Amino acid sequence: MEAPLKHVKNNLALNDIKKISNLGLFYIQEKGIPTKVIKQFEKVYRLNKKQIAFLLGVSEKTLYNLLKESVLDQERSDRFLFIIKIFEEGNETFFGPENLINWLMTPQPMLDNNVPFNLLSSITGGEAVHALMIRVKHGILA
């Protein structure tokens, strides 16, 4: 059984997310991810506001307005959890945030020479990036 969600939600941090089951994340997403987690994500992966806005599918102005709130809405919480899942997989696959960001910003032949980061603008593109990361992690490059 996982940690009581009432406690976790109020004190949720980026590092907590990988320890919570998918069902637990669903419940958290329903109530909204605290915006402080976005700030932690931004710092860990050294992304700028424009990049964070792109990942969330919003304008920079909307991102600034979202960050004034205490939590994201359900839809953006769900999208952000998906992005976190991809970045966590990449962090593990490429042995750290710096290597991951370098990989995400480099055209990949297995993605028709698309820049993986650019594919993260959609769920379908994100799934393609995530699948390639898993292949790389397991040495399946052909």
UniProtKB/TrEMBL annotation:
Boundaries of every Antitoxin Xre/MbcA/ParS-like toxin-binding domain copy: 92-139
Pfam family of the protein (one): Xre_MbcA_ParS_C
Protein name, as recorded: DUF2384 domain-containing protein
